[in-house]
Amino acid sequence: MIRPQRNAHRDYMDLSGIWGFRVAGGPDSAPTHELAVPGSWNEQLAEAGFMGFVGAAWLTTEAIVPPSFAGRRIVLRFGSVGYSAEVFANGERVGEGPLPHLPFDVDVTEVATPGEALRVAVRISNEESPDGITPGISRADYARLNLGTKEYFPATRPDFYPYGGLHRPVYLMAMPDRGIETVRIRTDIADGRARVGVDADAKGTLSATLTLRGEVVAKASGEGALTLDVASPELWSPGTPTLYDLTVRLHRDTSVMDEVRQTVGIRTIRVEGTQLLLNEQPVFLRGFGRHEDAAISGRGLNLPMMVKDFGLIAWCGANSFRTSHYPYAEEQLEWADRHGVLVVSELACVNLDFRQVTDATLSNHLAALEAQVARDRNHPSVIMWSLANEPGYLGEEEYDEAHAGSYWDAVFGRARALDDTRPLTFANVQYAGSQDPAFERADVIGLNRYRGWYDAPGQIGRGADHLRSELDEIAARYGKPIAIWEFGADAMAGQHASYDQMFTEEYQADLIEAQLDIFENHPACIGAHIWNLTDFMTAQHHRRVVVNRKGVFTRDRQPKMAAHMLRKRWS
Length: 571
Ligand code: GCB
Description:
The protein has nine helices and 33 strands. Strand 27 (382-389), helix 6 and strand 28 (424-427) form a beta-alpha-beta unit. By secondary structure, it is an alpha+beta fold. The two termini are 38 Å apart. The relative contact order is 0.11. The longest helix has 19 residues, at 460-478. Helix 5 (359-376) runs parallel beside helix 6 (401-418) and helix 8 runs parallel beside helix 9 (561-570). The strands form eight sheets. The chain has an eight-stranded parallel beta sheet. A six-stranded antiparallel beta sheet has the order 3-2-5-11-8-9, with no helix packed on it. Strands 1-13-6-10 form a four-stranded antiparallel beta sheet, with no helix packed on it. Bound molecules: (2S,3S,4S,5R)-3,4,5-trihydroxy-6-oxo-oxane-2-carboxylic acid (GCB). Residues 158-159, 325, 389-390, 448, 486, 531, 548, 550 line the site of (2S,3S,4S,5R)-3,4,5-trihydroxy-6-oxo-oxane-2-carboxylic acid. (2S,3S,4S,5R)-3,4,5-trihydroxy-6-oxo-oxane-2-carboxylic acid (GCB) binds at residues 158-159, 325, 389-390, 448, 486, 531, 548, 550.
């Protein structure tokens, strides 16, 4: 899926702005409220009663189709919705977007008339489906699955708010008929030269030109996949995030039919023994789990907040983050490419419950995987795929170990077939312990561990002892690199104590420091990501005081003691 571009063959118009909102009715019913897009409806419309609203709502807008779009394919591009959508244009149902947090296109050429108005109505539901890879949970399921005390309002299983709305920009795009559909880039390095493979879905002859700072460094043309040979490549890395510019053109009958531009970073990433090698050098991932979350805009793309968050990551001296727990906006990956931030790209798969997993769950998992790899594979910042966060194997009598094994064979197998250039990982839940069936399939063992928090509360030393022995055991058993994808503690900004007291700023800073001492010195450990960069919104229940407070920054991005500690330690 190609990002909206403007050139002789392609154009786009941004439909972000104020849209209509209503719950009942149809695509052409008059809105009852208005709200900003991108943005979640929850906090924007809290005073109108929509904070905890889970269900379907209509979001509507109208735009004049630019006359210059005449004679071209006209497509609506949705950056993402929370969580699924049906799309109507001029009253007609034209398509749907079933995958949460991922972009989708809807062709409206048949209904859009250049020079005339196009009415766009999107019916969005933020309900999670029971077959989703972040499985939805009904009130009845709470009892059936014995999750009684975990009941959240709104009903959801993950520890983040089930925000609804149009979360990323909506574009009306013009593009050539039978143009370039996708461009897949692959970089390999050998003997001081790079081979940049360019594989495009397009019918006709392709030409590709690679430039660096305006100078042409390689060219190729032909039918099918192309290879550009780059002598003495400047490699992409956090210290020197060099980006080349690639232009791909599609030629038919001596004329250029389409053109696509794209940046390219040349680097390698691989696992050897218990090391992670970036450009053949060992790298340690210092960083954070995050959320796309901010007051008022909710999960909606909030560019000032995104800039701020990358500033906070750099201020702490971190080099990486995980897109916990879903694919982030492409704007984030483009920033990471330009600024040399390493990204573990995670699928929107949270709390898979093997008592509930069906064939439909697996096909949803594979569909999400394919869409995410297709979207993100050309980003040099993306160094690993995380295929799930905290899959659960509760109730031995109800879940079948062989089934879990074959499920993971299918998911890891498909991921390797789609992309053999990046290691695969996932985040194992503490209670599942050291024998998770996904460990055998992963290249990097990922652990979420809250020692000194969910167990050994108030006892940093006891938690640390437990961690040390657990790491040694897992390292000995699997002989693979281990990444700690989550660890940390809640802290109420402004809460202090002279002794180890949970929820104080001191306790959070001391726990993180004690555990970093272990992770940064363990021979099998290749990274440690603190949970979380910032405080973030969760559903309501007795374990959270309005927000999850494991951020080293508050939700309005002010540092707690732990952030200052990290800055001293890492910069
Ligand atoms: C986890 C989850 C994360 C939660 C975190 C917590 O293991 O992966 O989504 O927010 O724990 O704070 O409990």
